[in-house]
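Curious: explain these tokens?
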Amino acid sequence: MNKKLLTWLLAASIAVIFVATGLNAGTKVADTIKMDTNAYTKRTKTPPKFEFVSFTHKKHAEEYKVSCGECHHDKDNKPLTLKAGDAVQKCSECHNVMEKDKANPKDIKALENAMHGNCIECHKKANIKAGDPKGLKGNAPVSCNNCHIPPKS
């Protein structure tokens, strides 16, 4: 094999290694995510009534086998195909309305509506699958006080 071809193959191999390493570097996701969007933490009218919800990302992904696309979606609400390490936007990037509008209380752009809709509906489905016909009782919390706990004094 001539030296020029060997040099090109070696250079191409190194380039492929760098590209593959860069693609796999991605974003590190914490095992537990505190849902503490800045716009909520900066409220000044009243103190928070509840601690911020802690989402067990690792447990949902590994133990409960929830696929990424069940929570992460595109602007048309189609599931994203993601793998561990892929960079994703926070929910609040698109669901960026931080206070419910009384004229449109179910606005999906409101972060609270998006989070409640996604989490509660998924939990109801899990409870139905586990045997509760209404999906309101089971291991997957559906009621407010299972996720929202009063602040520690």
